[in-house]
Design goal:
By secondary structure, the chain is α/β, with parallel strands linked by helices. 30% of the residues lie in helices and 22% in strands. The two termini are 33 Å apart. The structure holds manganese (II) ion (MN). Manganese (II) ion binds next to loops.
Length: 474
């Protein structure tokens, strides 16, 4: 089956150019200016006219939490509803961060559990990051085995929460990861700072949502980012990936490492840290909607993160999609913010927010949009150029975006199972009119047209962060 997309403006991480795209059997067969239905190569192709529209690679979100069970609550999106939302927002690949399993379980316990949750349900292609809960020789061997045999080439560590790793365990993981060329993603917040504050605030009766950001200050992030980057160097230039960077102080540590020519690391931020601020917590009820870790920061932090995207200092924008219902689940924190399940939705909003607030406002270019939302996430996850690229031989995952239309974001127009969006009522430029996964249309004019279970599990290759030149090779 062939499809010919004519007259679109193709956007890659390097350029915008007018060209036609011929798709065959789920792959991009040919990209050239002036392919027509009369060309023998395009014989029998279904025609899509993309005049006046941008054609982007399907977006890649390497930080989601579908069907996440955090003990006190389970997110409302499973791998079906969550990936339908992803698809409608132009995301055709996710790499999901797993929940913790039972205490002491091997890494493969959660891998098995996540196949059970995702296989036959996901509607976009998907992979998993593994997750560490404890460290010993067996677990480290298992990491290497899962990387080789299951294509799980990245694992997450937490520097706070119940299953945090201390510096000794981090060194063990990082040293082995450096040898095996496995990427270690890290949640960077200093556990002592955060827990000291939380305990103190609760004992002083400071339990409203507005105390949440104060309890997790930017210093806690900066300290952990700095420590992770130094530990990675001490472990032999271990490849690391900082998830959800939220603050200017954290960013300074990233810039310092760059200046010291540390090559094998990448840094992610999220739309919420670019678009929202801690005043969101002023209203104790509304604030629960954005109760997440790290928390929303100040205007100066937002501006610093945008500037870092303008200047190519950050590497990816992912969502940390982790939706709990406002009506019920988030209310667990109504009397005490420390009891609120932490996380917010966002998988559907990312691409259009970054287009409207980033590209249309002149903060990033169209190629940077593709770099941050498509190409670099694919490179970090070891999926490039199968994913995140518009080139011959790549998967025919495409987003067609109409820049001449606009829309107002509202929960009624969204496709996940959640009951709110943090961007309710926000006016944005651009509308995603069509999304294709491996050559098949899965979203058309705002409606999901794909099928449950059509997403494929992706055995991933080595992250580009682990390669000789790091992420920016070639
Ligand atoms: Mn997360």
């Amino acid at each position: 089956m062939k499809t010919l997309i004519r007259n679109g403006r193709l956007v890659t991480d390097r350029e915008v150019r007018k060209a036609d795209l011929l798709l065959e059997d789920g792959k991009i067969l040919k990209i050239a200016d002036g392919i027509t239905e009369q060309d023998p190569i395009a014989e029998g192709a279904e025609l899509i006219d993309a005049s006046g529209r941008f054609v982007l690679p399907g977006a890649v979100d390497i930080h989601t939490h579908m069907d996440l069970d955090v003990g006190i609550a389970r997110v409302i999106d499973d791998f079906y509803t969550g990936t339908v939302a992803a698809a409608c927002g132009g995301t055709t690949t996710i790499v999901d961060h797993m929940a913790f399993g039972p205490k002491g379980c091997p890494l493969s316990h959660q891998v098995k559990e996540y196949h059970r949750l995702a296989d036959g349900n996901a509607v976009v292609d998907y992979g998993f990051h593994g997750v560490f809960q404890h460290v010993d020789d067996e677990i480290l061997d298992e990491m290497a085995m899962l990387s080789r045999e299951e294509g799980i080439t990245s694992f997450k560590v937490y520097m706070t929460y119940d299953y945090m790793l201390d510096d000794l365990d981090l060194m063990k993981v990082l040293s082995r990861a450096a040898r095996e060329k496995i990427l270690i993603a890290s949640h960077c917040e200093n556990n002592g700072i955060v827990n000291y504050n939380r305990q103190r605030f609760v004992s002083e009766g400071k339990k409203a949502a507005c105390w949440h950001p104060v309890s997790r200050p930017d210093l806690a992030e900066a300290e952990a980012v700095s420590r992770l980057l130094y530990l990675a160097r001490a472990a032999g230039e271990a490849p690391v990936y900082i998830v959800h960077l939220s603050s200017q102080k954290g960013l300074l540590e990233v810039q310092r490492a760059r200046e010291m020519h540390q090559k094998h690391f990448g840094t992610e931020t999220c739309p919420q840290y670019l678009l929202l601020e801690d005043s969101f917590y002023d209203d104790p009820q509304e604030g629960l909607k954005a109760l997440m870790a790290p928390p929303l920061r100040k205007a100066a932090d937002r501006e610093a993160l945008w500037q870092a995207l303008t200047d190519d200092v950050l590497d990816t924008v992912a969502t940390d999609h982790c939706p709990f219902t406002f009506a019920r689940q988030k209310q667990q924190g109504a009397e005490d913010f420390t009891k609120c399940p932490s996380g917010a939705p966002g998988v559907e909003e990312r691409l259009i927010l970054l287009y409207s607030e980033g590209v249309c406002k002149g903060r990033i270019t169209l190629p940077q949009l593709v770099k941050y939302c498509c190409a670099n996430p694919a490179k970090v996850a070891g999926l490039y150029p199968q994913k995140g690229a518009l080139e011959e031989g790549a998967d025919a995952d495409l987003v067609i975006l109409d820049p001449d239309r606009e829309q107002t974001l509202t929960i009624g127009g969204m496709h996940g199972a959640g009951d709110y969006t943090c961007y309710e009522g926000m006016h944005v430029n651009g509308v995603i009119t069509q999304v294709m996964l491996r050559g098949r249309t899965i979203v058309k004019d705002g409606a999901f047209t794909g099928l449950r279970g059509d997403g494929r599990y992706l055995k991933r290759k080595t992250s580009s962060i682990c390669t000789e030149k790091g992420l920016y090779e070639g």
